[in-house]
Design goal:
Oligomer: heterodimer
Helix content of chain B: under 10%
Radius of gyration of chain A: 13 Å
Largest sheet of chain B: 7 strands, mixed
Distance between the termini of chain A: 36 Å
Number of strands of chain B: 11
Shape of chain B: globular
Structural class of chain B: mainly beta
Number of helices of chain A: 0
Strand content of chain A: 35-45%
Radius of gyration of chain B: 13 Å
Order of helices and strands of chain A: EEEEEEEEE
Largest sheet of chain A: 6 strands, mixed
């Protein structure tokens, strides 16, 4: 079955750039979606189809995807960006097609 | 305002059944795929099931296949999850989520409800 690997935690100072990775076998051939989840709240879509942003999501959020790694980049990090971030792909490679989430990365703003 | 409101959660004994509902508003419900996603306490997100706009395509996670049934009623703008033979490991917050397109594959989930808690315990 397809596995997405994320670092458990990433820390960054305010104003700096945070990069959250999502590893998977040939993930560059898939569309990757990213969600932000703050404590006690539902997830929010922040990037879809590797690098597109839904309306209302700041331009500070961007995504890339190539080879075996997808990356969510948050520029000029703010305290309000502190949250858990999850990557997601549609796995059509196995007999049982399904949606797969990464384990999540906790972003801490120092 | 686009909104998804889940209901039907609660405390249930192992082996029993529960039916979750999700009421949609603010968008054309029958244009989009819908999903159920769960999150066990302190854990990550797990996709449970998805259904295409016309119920023509349906998928389940291996962990629930054969026990859970997803359905929708487009006339009532509602999504359902019938959960049978519940286990302790099904304990989680269950979210209803809207797909960005009519099929339940490939397209991200752009609107999420606040979730309904299911606790399976004797």
């Amino acid at each position: 079955s397809y596995v997405l690997t994320q670092p458990p935690s990433v820390s960054v100072a305010p104003g700096q750039t945070a990069r959250i990775t999502c590893g998977g076998n040939n993930i560059g051939s898939k569309s990757v979606h990213w969600y932000q989840q703050k404590p006690g709240q539902a997830p929010v879509l922040v990037v879809y189809d590797d690098s597109d942003r839904p309306s209302g999501i700041p331009e500070r959020f961007s995504g890339s995807n190539s080879g075996n790694t997808a990356t969510l980049t948050i520029s000029r990090v703010e305290a309000g960006d502190e949250a858990d971030y999850y990557c997601q792909v549609w796995d059509s490679s196995s007999d049982h097609q399904r949606w797969v989430f990464g384990g999540g990365t906790k972003l801490t703003v120092l | 305002e686009v909104q998804l409101v889940e209901s039907g959660g609660g405390l249930v004994q192992p082996g029993r059944s529960l039916r979750l509902s999700c009421a949609a508003s603010g968008f054309t419900f029958d244009d989009y795929a819908m999903h159920w996603v769960r999150q066990a306490p302190g854990k990550g997100l797990e996709w449970v099931s998805g259904i295409s706009w016309n119920s023509g395509s349906i998928g389940y996670a291996d962990s629930v296949k054969g026990r859970f049934t997803i359905s929708r009623d487009n006339a009532k703008n509602s999504l359902y999850l019938q959960m049978n033979s519940l286990r302790a490991e099904d304990t989680a917050l269950y979210y209803c989520a809207k797909g960005r397109d009519s099929g339940y594959a490939d397209y991200a989930f752009d609107i999420w409800g606040q979730g309904t808690m299911v606790t399976v315990s004797s």
